[in-house]
Amino acid sequence: MRIIPRRIEMKTLRYPGWKMLYGRRKTGKSFIASRFLYHDLYYFVQRDGAILERRSGARLSYHELLKELSKNLGKKTIVIDEFHRLPEEFLDFLHANAGRGESDLILLTSTLWLSLRLLSKKESPILGIVLPIKIGLIDEREVIIELSKEVSGKELVEASTYLREPMLVPLYKPPLREFMAQYLYSSGPVVEDLIGEAFTEEEILFSEVYRAILHAVADGKSKSGEIASYLLSQGLLDSPSSIQKYLKVLSTMDIIRKVPIFRKRRRFSYSIASPLLDLHFYLSSKYAYTELETPLEFIRNAVNEKVPRHVEKYIENLLGKVYGLRPVRIEEPDLEVDVALQGFKRLELVGEVKWKSRVKREEVWKIEEKLSRFNCRKVLVVPDESVLESEPKTVEVLTPEDLLTLAQESLRKELGEE
């Protein structure tokens, strides 16, 4: 089975002490805890409140679990998966038993709303006694390194863009675009469930406000004012300013990506962090594809339209992590670029991504002319140098092979392997 090892998260997870792994559904929390973290006991709390000990298969009641924990906390390493389904008094139990022994307790939850509430309220019983660790999409560097064992070139970058979504990793079969079209055609209704549990403790469907925001962002509305106007037209907001609290929750949860606008204080651009979710909400907004019969060809067209845009964001994020820089959006007239990375005080790297089979000589000249206005490093990313009709003289060309090399060097450095 194809596995992305997620060494960056594992570096943090190996620290001793109590931890809480939280994140949206299907980001790999249970897989990491069960396959990569040492544990003596693994309890899974089912939706009906029953508790299953995965190694022995024993079923426990809540009170039986408390007896087991009272006996083993501090002596054995214990995992409790979906712990938020336990009674609220369980948090007081944890508080009363904090600091017992040296063995670890690892809590897992997919209810992000509850996670944020527990970690932000001063009166939270577990605040300060567990280390919160967000498990999100797979790091851009890790996925391109692992997939390079199977595919290369254009396919490698496109697959890496979407297989940051852990649930797609074991299912993927090249070519990526056809795989994504077929997956959404057959499994579209499943995708929205990935975040349904994030917003309510009761695990009911997330609210119409959040759904409408995601539809708006997937449809290209990237500013808070544009998103607010859309929701106002749907009768879902009382005032434009009220959009901020919803955007804050979504960005904190890493469901949407919040990027500063260059030279615009307190102004941001929003996009959906997961390309899979972005495709889903775009298709839902455009075709209501999970509710109405939608031809596969419609979905293929949407995939082909979105892939280059998603690749741009993937490359920007990858280069940002490689060089330790922060993505920003440049919205000044005639200066918008696909990739813009800022250091502590200034722009450090700008670039264009031309993700197509041919880049004409005139396009290369225009790219060089536009990027020449920036006093920083300049790059042009293409699927292969052969697509260029002429070689740029003032701009560095990066290919998938170059991106892979940069990812390998950066990850080795971060993991202390150099």
In one word, what is the shape? globular
What fold name stands as the CATH topology of the largest domain? Arc Repressor Mutant, subunit A
User: How many structural domains can be distinguished in the coordinates?
Assistant: 3
Instruction: Write the element-wise H/E pattern from the N-terminal end onward.
Output: HEHEEEHEHEHEHHHHHHHEEHHEEEHEEH
**Can you tell me the CATH architecture of the largest domain?**
Orthogonal Bundle
Structural class by helix and strand composition:
alpha/beta
Task: Please tally the helical runs, counting DSSP H or I stretches of 4 or more residues.
Answer: 16
Portion in helices: 40-55%
Query: Low-confidence segments, ≥5 residues, pLDDT <50?
Result: 201-205
What Rg, in angstroms, do the CA atoms define? 23 Å
CATH homology superfamily name of the largest domain: Winged helix-like DNA-binding domain superfamily/Winged helix DNA-binding domain
* Largest sheet data: 7 strands, mixed
> How far apart lie the N and C ends?
29 Å
The CATH class of the largest domain is Mainly Alpha
Estimate the strand proportion. 5-15%
Strand element count = 14
InterPro entries: P-loop_NTPase, WH_DNA-bd_sf
Protein name: ATPase
Organism: Thermococcus peptonophilus
